[in-house]
Amino acid sequence: MRALQGLRGPRAPSLPLLLLCFLAAVRRSLEDGLSTAAPFTSLPVQEEMMTEYSNLSLESHNLSVTERPNMPAEKNITLERPSNVELTCQFTPSGNLNAVNVTWKKGDKLLEDNYLVNATGSILYTQYRVAVINSKQMGSYSCFFGEKKQQRGTFNLKVPEINGKNKPLITYVGDTVVLICKCQDCLPLNWTWYSGNGSVQVPIGVPVNDKYVISGKHANETRLKITQLSEDDQGTYWCHAIFELGESEGHVELVVLSYLVPLKAFCAIAAEVVLLVAIILLFEMYTQKKKKPSDDGKEIEQGEQLKLDDSNGIENSGPRHRKNESVGQ
Asked: SS3 for 64?
């Protein structure tokens, strides 16, 4: 059997060609390393975590930490559902990068693994990755640079806040009121209402004589309707929202007044007005009585002065008549 002419098997590349390809790849990697920041190298723990929770969304957050002690770096992160969270701190020290110690803490607990440190130019980077799947992973994560004078950056992982009512809601006995709590841009799994009895929170569940009705037009809000209000219904009402990663709550302060309260206020104001008018009248009567004796004294003095003037006039007219009579004779 003859071999087919014109067909040859694959030939291995020559050694010089392989060497040139290797040098070109090394040169390209060196140029990339000088032009851009070197990427973080994943730890085995991180790779396992990212593989196990690869279906979760990724949240990336950054903080810039400075050496100024009066400028703390802090960032609040709102998480509604489980996510992979990537926290990165960057720090530009005034001294040697290699002399800066980097640590991470969750609250007061030191985190000994699952974080990376990298330097690019004069900037020091550190990154911590965590898969937040329940409330145990929520809380504060802080990066620390240095040992004696530690510079810190803090990430606060929280569930969404609930907006109640800041000012007290004032109503009257016998009225009906609706208390509202809302969650902005979030959808809680469930809502629960509690009434405040001192330091104890009493859950409001099954309607009692149709006094309480819990409803909500949308998933991000809840409404508590209270009918036939009495003074015993006043106090603080708490609305709890339940999320996959924890709970959040808001409150509404309810003040129930009797209809006698505004009447009492009106009576108090009327009494103050009457008292003020009485004081003014008494003062005027007193000043008039004080002026009257002085006026009478002036009239008496004027009368006596007139009498004195009249008597002087009569005495002065006597000699004149005698003088006239003597002239006539």
From this structure: strand
Q: Between vectors from CA 179 to CA 178 and to CA 184, what angle results, nearest 5°?
A: 125
DSSP letter string, 166-233: SS-EEEETT--EEEEEE-TT---SEEEEEEEETTEEEEE-S-STT-EEEE-SSTTEEEEEE-S--GGG
Q: Report d(CA 133, CA 53) in Å as an integer.
A: 9
d(CA 290, CA 296): 11
Q: What residues form DSSP beta bridges with 181?
A: 222
312, 303, 190: which is closest to 246 by C-alpha?
Answer: 190
What are the φ/ψ torsions at residue 144 (nearest 5 degrees)? -120, 135
Looking at the chain, how many residues does it have?
329
For the chain, state the CA radius of gyration: 47
DSSP helix/strand/coil, 156: strand
* Residue 63: closest CA among 4, 171, 146, 151: 151
Q: How far is CA 141 from CA 118, 127, 162, 243, in A?
A: 19, 11, 23, 21
Run of H or E residues at 69? none
Closest CA to 171 of 72, 114, 253: 253
Query: What does DSSP assign to residue 176?
Result: -
Q: Are strands 235-243 and 190-197 parallel, antiparallel or unpaired?
A: antiparallel
- What are the pLDDT digits (tens) for 1-28? 333 333 333 344 454 444 444 444 434 4
- Starting at the edge strand found earlier in the chain, the sheet holding 221-226 runs 177-182, 221-226, 212-215
pLDDT at site 236: 92
Residue 282: band (very low, low, confident or very high) from pLDDT cuts 50, 70, 90: confident
Residue 3 tokens, joined: 């071999």
Q: How many Å apart are CA 38 and CA 95, to the nearest integer? A: 21
Whether residue 213 contacts residue 207, with contact meaning beta carbons closer than 8 Å, is answered with: yes
CA distance 35 to 128: 24
- Sequence letter at residue 266: F
> Rounded to an integer, what distance in angstroms lies between the CA atom of residue 117 and that of residue 40?
8
